[in-house]
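[SOLVED] Predicted holo structure with pyridoxal-5'-phosphate

Edit: marking solved, answer below. Original request kept for reference. I posted the sequence and ligand SMILES and asked for the 3D complex as structure tokens.
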Amino acid sequence: MSDGSPIMTLDVGALRAEFPILSRDAYGKRLVYLDSAASAQKPRAVIDAMSHAMEHSYANVHRGLHLLSNEATAAFEEARKTAAAFINAASPDEIVFTTGGTDAFNLVSYALGVNEIGEGDEIILSLAEHHSNIVPWHLLRERKGAVIKWLDISDDGEIDLDVYRALFTSKTKLVAISHMSNVLGAPTPAKELASIAHEHGAKILFDGCQAGVHGAVDVRDIDCDFYVMTGHKLYGPTGIGVLYGKKSVLEGMPPFKGGGEMIHVVTTEAVTYNDPPHRFEAGTPPILEAIGLGAALTWMKEKGVDAIAAHEARLKDHALEELAKLNFVRVYGRAPGKAPIIAFTVDGAHPHDISAILDRTGVAVRAGHHCAQPLMKRLGVDATARASFAAYNTHDDVEALISGLHKTHSMLS
Ligand SMILES: Cc1ncc(COP(=O)(O)O)c(C=O)c1O
């Protein structure tokens, strides 16, 4: 997932200084934040962009005819252009701002489901999906009698394209699949998955909530119908997500929510709907959050998406090498191109205890089922710990994780 331009190098020391939160401590120890797959920290550029908007150019968007509203509208729509360019969408009109990843999946499940998915129609999901890309399809199953077909994955999270191809029937309407697992870090072969879906007349939606953070995404090259990203993992604020939809596909969908902004005309008898993307943005949108997301994506581009990915890959390789030396640790997922997301267990210790003990050493990792219970079942575990790395992590952070794990093991064994 490279954008083809020469890879810049990252000055990680200078970059860390851009994240105010990284200068705080945790229980008097250096904060080692290894939970970016859950939510990334925010650089000064994002904080400043949102504060500036609140202090200088804030008003509601689109419907005002005054200076502040026009400035806020321009900044909001500029963020849409930035998001479109970030994933190489053909037009900003293909970018719907949502309140996050979960909201985007629910939007597609509802709006596509109205006309295009009926009783007995099939939706393919992989066993590695996040609940936010599972439950909306269960809702459609309950609402309309759609059938969910499950694509198995290897222990490392890889997909066998023959197994995938064999799931399609004349009833398959949609594939909804992650572009990168939030547990195993495994990337999926997006172009091939999309081409096979289209050969069978099905649409395809990618969950890019993790993939969008760890490498360049080109929705036109993938040729997907939908692509979902979430702001808070992209160094941006919470409360904002990006739903990319091909123009022709969005145009064919009815609204998800009703309210202001998504209409052409409302009378006492009837309503006509606005064109996409506004058809899907009922009510006052997350204005400040969109501006913050635009600043985050611009920040990522300035640092170099490929440079961030290369730095993260080195950290991941280092962490995997060091973890392999610990005979009491089991790592889940070693697919080629694995993202810096490392799920692991420690012999004789519950993942919650691992996380709690690491926390007291200043190391923040996540533990639990990671909103991926079907995957946990497939892996034969109830929960794992998970260390995830971002642009601001360092090799010292890897060392801190390893020494924390030694301590955890000696305390619990
Ligand atoms: C792979 C994946 N998909 C979807 C989501 C949900 O995104 P959001 O938190 O924006 O609803 C997450 C968040 O953890 C995720 O990791």
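OP edit: Residues 12-42+304-412 form a domain with the Aspartate Aminotransferase, domain 1 fold (CATH 3.90.1150.10). Thanks to everyone who chimed in.
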